[in-house]
Amino acid sequence: MDSALTHLECSACGTRYEADRLHNLCRCGHPLLVRYDLGAVAVRPEEIAARRPGLWRWAELLPVRDPAHRVTLGEGDTPLLDLGGGVLVKDEGLNPTGSFKARGAAVGASRARELGARHVALPTNGNAGAAWSAYGRRAGLTVTVAVPAGAPAVTRSEALATGADTAVVAGLIGDAGAMVARAVAAREGWFDVSTLKEPYRVEGKKTMGLEIAEQLGWRAPDVVVYPTGGGVGLIGIAKAFAELRELGWLTGPPTRFVAAQSAGCAPVVRAYETGAETTEPWPDPRTVAYGITVAAPLGGPQLLRILRGSGGTAVAVEDADALATRAECAATDGVLLSPEGAVALHAVRTLTARDWVTPTDRVVVLNTGSPLVQPETLPSPAGLLSPADDLP
Ligand SMILES: *Cc1c(COP(=O)(O)O)cnc(C)c1O
User: Fold this and answer.
1) Ligand 1, closest atom to CA 229?
2) How far, in Å, from the CA of 369 to the mean position of ligand 1?
3) Of the chain's two ends, which shows fewer C-beta atoms within 10 Å, N or C?
4) For 380-391, how does the pLDDT look when each residue is reduced to its tens digit (9 = 90+)?
5) How many structural domains are present in the chain?
6) Pairing of strands 363-367, 256-262
7) Is 341 helix (H, G, I), strand (E, B) or coil?
8) Helix 300-309 / helix 232-247 crossing angle, nearest 10 deg
9) In 3-state terms, what secondary structure has residue 191?
């Protein structure tokens, strides 16, 4: 189970970097991607399927070299639930710490430790902080997180409970990110693990795509709909499919990738619709789907290339529509989505109404987190009965 990792490569200018030391962005300011010698991968999909469950089953396609550095809390191998009508939900809310951020933190923290990092820092809308705190602790790292005051409270408590230095910021994620950048520049030995500012988080999130391919019997879905904030998950799933096609494991239609965003914070949708090659910062981000409140995603150009290059699209969804679709899905199928997952599922409804999604399409929707992170968005039962009353 040796990693086939060879080097890092800039997503924009293609400059190569040596993989076995810590790197943040390329000198040109854009994110680095991990490259592998896929021709040297000798393992077969059947062998991977027979391994112990979890994302380290895919070790050859992941960047950690020494098995002793691979930390786990039981992440990955989440179900792909059938909602009928060709729509399937990958339920990432079942991961440790309650979101798919567990995947990025498992691989990111493992690789940071392998390369000698001692102290990592990141801004977070909540879930990434909870995940990095837990996985960082497991990897023996010190973790500092900067969380906007409006982020779901339970995620801050989780980060604190698992030992992260947790700073609550009167601002948004961009403000928290600037504070982290300042601290990392000033303090010896701190390593910035912000979204896309190091190359390994996306490799962890890539495992969502590896699992989707395997769960669909190695036939690619027609459409993947992803609730997009920073867009790491979308970049990761697209990278997974590209690597699996190169390996010859994945066949089927070219997948159209769709970025679903909240109408109250939709920089990717706006750039897509105006034909721009990069995103403009969204002025006043506001949405119940807190995990996708990212006004200025660093991976904007990469995301737009994936959407356009795959024949995909981008869709904005109103909060009220997302929550109505969530209620309907919960009542019909017993599947309770996070607000972010609801944004993605509602985007499918929108695209179906436009005939962009057709009845023969197989569509995978990512439910990126647990609905329990934001209990205030769920209904509460009314009234209080005495034990002598009859049940309604
Ligand atoms: C972080 C997060 C997202 C957005 O993730 P990106 O891959 O950075 O776009 C979506 N949903 C939830 C629940 C999240 O925590």
Assistant:
1) 9
2) 8
3) C
4) 988 899 999 999
5) 1
6) unpaired
7) helix
8) 50
9) strand
DSSP 290: G
Angle at 210 between CA 206 and CA 211, to 5 degrees: 115
Dump pLDDT digits (tens) for 189-232: 999 999 889 999 999 999 999 999 999 999 999 999 999 999 99
Nearest CA to ligand 1 atom 4: 229
Choose among 59, 69, 345, 93: nearest CA to 207.
Answer: 59
Closest CA to 367 of 85, 174, 63, 127: 127
Residue 9, domain member (yes or no): no
What span, in angstroms and rounded, lies between the C-alpha atoms of 118 and 318?
A: 42
- The CATH code of the domain that includes 294 is 3.40.50.1100
Domain membership of residue 371 (yes or no) is: yes
Cα 244–chain centre separation:
19
- Give me the phi and psi of 216, to 5 degrees please: -95, 15
Describe the strand order of the beta sheet including 119-123 as a list of residue ranges.
165-169, 142-148, 119-123, 190-192
- Distance between CA atoms of residues 164 and 136, nearest Å: 9
For residues 366 and 308, give the distance between their C-alpha atoms in angstroms, rounded to a whole number: 20
Amino acid at 28: C
Choose one of 91, 145, 194, 368 to mutate for the ligand 1 pocket test, by most ligand atoms within 8 angstroms of C-beta.
Answer: 368
Ligand 1 test: best mutation among 89, 225, 292, 365, most atoms within 8 Å of CB? 292
Tens-digit pLDDT profile for residues 155-187: 999 999 999 999 999 999 999 999 999 999 999
Strand 119-123 versus strand 142-148 pairing type: parallel
Q: Is the CB of 231 under 6 A from ligand 1?
A: yes
CA dihedral in degrees (78, 130, 259, 30; nearest 10)?
-120
- Classify residue 186: in a domain, yes or no: no
Q: What is the pTM of this model?
A: 0.97
Which amino acid is present at 258? V
229 lines ligand 1 (CB under 6 A): yes
CB 124 less than 6 A from any atom of ligand 1: no
